[in-house]
Amino acid sequence: MRIDNFFAELKRRNVYKVAVAYIVGGWALAQGLAQVLPVFSVPTWVIQLLVLLIVMGLPIALGLAWAFELTPQGIKRTETADAMPEATRRKKYVWIYVVVIGGLLSIGLFFLGRYSAAPTKYAAVDTSVKSIAVLPFENLSDDKQNTYFADGVQDQILTNLAKVSDLRVISHTTVRQYKSGEPRNLREIGKQLGVTHILEGSV
Prior knowledge:
Low-confidence stretches: 117-122
Helix content: 55-70%
Order of helices and strands: HHHEEHHEHEHHE
Largest sheet: 3 strands, parallel
Mean pLDDT: 75
Shape: elongated
Distance between the termini: 68 Å
């Protein structure tokens, strides 16, 4: 197959349209995941994995667009759909709606995440709920192996505190951002995490 015939075949089989629709729809879905999942304390690696799966699905979608076609009688192989009368073929305008809706959704989620999170810099602290955050323990020695020991102590404390039924414990993933040798403003950290108690320690 000549290269110009190949690109013409891609156009005839609507591979270009599916690619555009998938990229716009996938981008909107990724934006939605990035905005919604952190609210439920979903780890960052889970969000990254879902975005990676969306990216990996693009070649699969293009392959399906090449091999199959949507007709009034359902999904048919492209060869079968080509043999059908022209009058029985469905107009392929679905991809346009997908692009428009995906684009509007993506823009809406972008502005929602940009402007809705800005005014609320700190989480509201509900003093009626018992809550605690265990910050990463600092390693004050020159032995780097003590860093692993400090992390283990923090994890053990978090595990024990999580067994208390009426105590809300901030996850290890959330407090990991405060792992540094710089001085900590505990009052500010408490407002950011929305907790009434903070535990810190050193090795």
